[in-house]
């Protein structure tokens, strides 16, 4: 019997990471989850490593020698990036550089998938830079593409849209769902604050994103950048309307009525469609599962 390929998943305690560990394990991979602290939920093998420490990263790669790397770890809070921009560069850029350098030296044949961001900016037009988080993720992708070109490494970048679905997320849909459950439990005033109901986003279930990562591992082409998205745009007003159907509560919504509508934008995942991947979980089911998660969670 052939040995199952080993995939190293950084950020294994995170929102996407926990889903990835479970899914790829079910798909026959030998999953090793990397976390920064010893606390870890899940049944896969665990390794504790500070990815911003170069020596620790080298020891990790020497020990595991993975066939695949799914790099999900990093900082992803736009607001906090304004407060400590250097920490975002350290967590998103330098952790990636240390991982790629360790692989180049110890395990160059590893197939690497870097989770970028739809919030990256165009580095040839500085006016498109909106916050330090975008800077850190753009630098991360540029570094990954550079290592692929300079050292002929098998590196792919995925750019997921706004991920939603069950699990502990700081995304807007999760924030809304958690707030509604707090209202149901009479732990919060029955008012949902939404800054801009007219804001438009592409929302994709995190479980569909994880399936896309597996497809990329099996079929993706080195050096490519894959958009992972639903291909549809929804306003926050649509999200709130859908959430209202999932609760008997009659809560109020407070927002700024003077904000102008945003244009609907599409993120067509054309390259992923060519690989045979399709989103399978509807927006309504994603939101339903998110509300159910918080109803069952001890967090609320």
TrEMBL record:
Pfam families tied to this protein: Epimerase (PF01370)
Keywords: Plasmid
Record domain NAD-dependent epimerase/dehydratase: where: 7-229
Matches recorded under SUPFAM superfamilies: NAD(P)-binding Rossmann-fold domains (SSF51735)
KW tRNA processing (keyword) present: no
UniProt family annotation: Belongs to the NAD(P)-dependent epimerase/dehydratase family.
PANTHER family: DTDP-D-GLUCOSE 4,6-DEHYDRATASE-RELATED
Official protein name in the record: NAD-dependent epimerase/dehydratase family protein
Organism lineage: Bacteria, Bacillati, Bacillota, Bacilli, Bacillales
């Amino acid at each position: 019997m052939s040995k199952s390929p080993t995939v190293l998943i950084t950020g294994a305690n995170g929102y996407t990471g926990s889903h990835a560990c479970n899914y790829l394990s079910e798909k026959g991979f030998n999953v090793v989850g990397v976390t920064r602290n010893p606390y870890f939920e899940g049944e896969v093998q665990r390794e504790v490593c500070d990815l911003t420490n170069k020596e620790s990263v080298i020891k990790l790669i020497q020990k595991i020698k993975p066939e695949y790397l799914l790099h999900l770890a990093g900082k992803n809070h736009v607001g906090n990036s304004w407060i400590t921009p250097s920490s975002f560069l350290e967590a998103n850029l330098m952790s990636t550089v240390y991982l790629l350098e360790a692989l180049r030296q110890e395990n160059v044949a590893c197939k690497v998938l870097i989770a970028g961001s739809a919030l990256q900016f165009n580095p040839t037009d500085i006016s498109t830079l909106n916050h330090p988080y975008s800077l850190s993720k753009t630098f991360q992708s540029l570094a990954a593409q550079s290592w692929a070109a300079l050292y002929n490494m098998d590196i792919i970048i995925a750019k997921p849209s706004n991920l939603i679905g069950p699990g502990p997320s700081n995304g807007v849909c999760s924030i809304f769902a958690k707030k509604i459950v707090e209202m149901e439990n009479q732990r919060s005033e029955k008012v949902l604050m939404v800054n801009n109901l007219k804001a438009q986003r592409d929302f994709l279930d995190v479980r569909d994103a994880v399936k896309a990562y597996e497809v990329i591992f099996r079929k993706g082409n080195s050096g490519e950048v894959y958009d992972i998205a639903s291909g549809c745009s929804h306003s926050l007003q649509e999200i709130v309307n859908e959430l209202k159907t999932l609760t008997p509560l009659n809560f109020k919504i407070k927002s700024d009525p003077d904000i102008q509508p945003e244009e609907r934008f599409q993120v067509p995942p054309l390259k992923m469609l060519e690989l045979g991947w399709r989103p399978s979980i509807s927006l309504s089911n994603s939101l339903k599962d998110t509300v159910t998660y918080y109803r069952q969670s001890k967090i609320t």
